[in-house]
Design goal:
By secondary structure, the chain is mainly β. It has helices spanning 103-106, 230-236, and strands spanning 6-12, 15-20, 25-31, 34-35, 57-58, 80-87, 93-100, 114-121, 125-133, 141-147, 150-152, 168-171, 177-180, 192-196, 202-205, 214-219, 223-228, 248-262, 267-276. The structure holds 6-O-phosphono-beta-D-tagatofuranose. Keywords: Isomerase.
């Protein structure tokens, strides 16, 4: 399979979603021809390095990992197409992707697993439904999971993010110290890398493309990571342009603080809905 293999969900009206099978990375989501996701102009599509932008799939580890690459292997693994895009009776379009353990994943993580990733493209929404199953008869595993969504914005400094009020967060840009955010809405004016815990089920980001709002609804994803590298760190990231950081904000739904524990034969499900308002 070529490094650049993509699957396109097309709902008509210039509303599409493009998935690169490398990492099952959603690399584009256009609503009425308006791109909603940020992908760096410097992004590298070599089938080796994770794609800088869109929605990289973080699994089974968030952050640095002693046994494998940062943020795990799912975002750099070849996923399978379980079901090619198909129109549902509602007019929405569905596609299903999957990833199972193989020699590559077992070289880092010796567990059997099966990930199912179902995307549904609606008129103004993109649904992400995830299932992870432990088919083993003996072994229990624990894992983290997160959708590392990069939203496209005209200027991150003008965005406000709701749903984080009163939440505790680990500040990765300040030695992992834990704080509480007392702000009604979160704004970003500096390098920000925070793991917010037990966040609200819904976030709204203001001033995304065309000055609209983006609603994020999440289920079984208790944590939300907020990331923007800002100017200095952006210069150190080779696949991100020095001047691109104002045009992105990562608001990432996941399960990080309390890992998922899967006993033999059990499964975990979580989902996210993005909606242009
Ligand atoms: O999700 C936030 C974060 O963990 C940041 O700390 C930052 O390092 C970012 O992910 C990007 O990681 P990457 O491996 O894609 O460069």
């Amino acid at each position: 399979m070529a490094a650049t293999s993509v699957v396109v969900l097309d709902r008509g009206n210039n509303t599409t979603c493009t998935v690169n099978l490398f990492g099952a990375t959603v690399v584009s989501w256009r609503v009425n021809n308006q791109e909603q996701l940020f992908v760096s102009k410097q992004a590298i599509f070599d089938g080796k390095r994770p794609i800088r932008g869109g929605v990289p799939f973080v699994f089974p580890q968030f952050g640095d990992w002693a046994f494998g690459p940062m943020h795990g292997f799912a975002r750099i693994a070849r996923w399978h197409v379980e079901k090619m895009p198909e129109r549902l009776p509602s007019g929405d379009v569905e596609a299903i992707f999957s990833l199972m353990d193989d020699d590559f994943t077992r070289s880092m993580w010796h567990f059997q697993f099966r990930l199912t990733y179902r995307l549904i493209l609606r008129e103004k929404e993109l649904h992400f439904n995830i299932g992870v199953y432990n088919p083993s008869k003996e072994l229990t595993f624990s894992c983290q999971m997160l959708l590392h969504t990069y939203f496209k914005v005209p200027d991150v400094r003008r965005c406000q993010i709701t749903g984080l009020h009163g939440c505790m967060f680990i500040d990765k840009s300040r030695d992992g110290v834990m704080y509480q955010d007392t702000r009604e809405v979160v704004t970003i004016n500096e390098c920000t890398s925070r793991i917010y815990q037990n966040t609200m089920q819904e976030h709204i980001i203001t001033n995304v493309v065309s000055g609209r709002k983006m609603r994020i609804q999440k289920y079984n994803f208790p944590d939300t990571v907020i990331w923007n590298p800002w100017a200095e760190l952006a210069k150190e990231i080779p696949d991100l342009g020095d001047d691109e950081f104002p045009n992105m904000v990562c608001v990432e739904a996941g399960r990080i603080a309390t890992p998922i524990v899967l006993l033999p034969g059990t499964a975990f499900e979580a989902s996210q809905i993005l909606q242009v308002m």
